[in-house]
Design brief:
Elements: E1 2-5, E2 8-11, H1 26-35, H2 43-57, H3 64-69, H4 75-81, H5 86-94
Antiparallel strand pairs: 1-2
Length: 103
């Protein structure tokens, strides 16, 4: 289905995740972050967002454990940056599909 985020029409699934990561922009990230009550987005948020997008583009499944092991951010910092479902919120803001391990 289609919706408008940050004045851009994008394709999303029933949970609001972009179904086409190529439609993502930083303006969309800011709008989704505000909706998720995350932010304002800092350099640390952007490190996580860009890392998730890179790994998704490479076809790698992301988990909190893998993200922690990547050295990009610790699990504790991830929870502080994206409270209440960190990987789920970070993935949505990054414009990638919800990770399989997230409910």
């Amino acid at each position: 289905m289609q919706t408008t985020i940050a004045e851009t029409t994008v394709d999303v699934n029933e949970e609001g995740y972009l179904t086409d990561p190529s439609q993502w922009t930083e303006a969309i990230a800011h709008a989704i972050a505000a909706e998720e009550k995350v932010g304002p987005l800092t350099d640390d948020h952007w490190k996580v967002i860009h890392h998730l997008r890179e790994k998704q583009a490479a076809g790698e499944e992301m988990t909190i454990r893998r993200l922690n092991k990547s050295g990009v951010i610790s699990t504790k910092e991830l929870y502080a940056l994206f409270p209440g479902g960190p990987l789920k919120k970070a993935a949505r803001i990054a414009g990638i599909p919800k990770p399989a391990g997230c409910i």
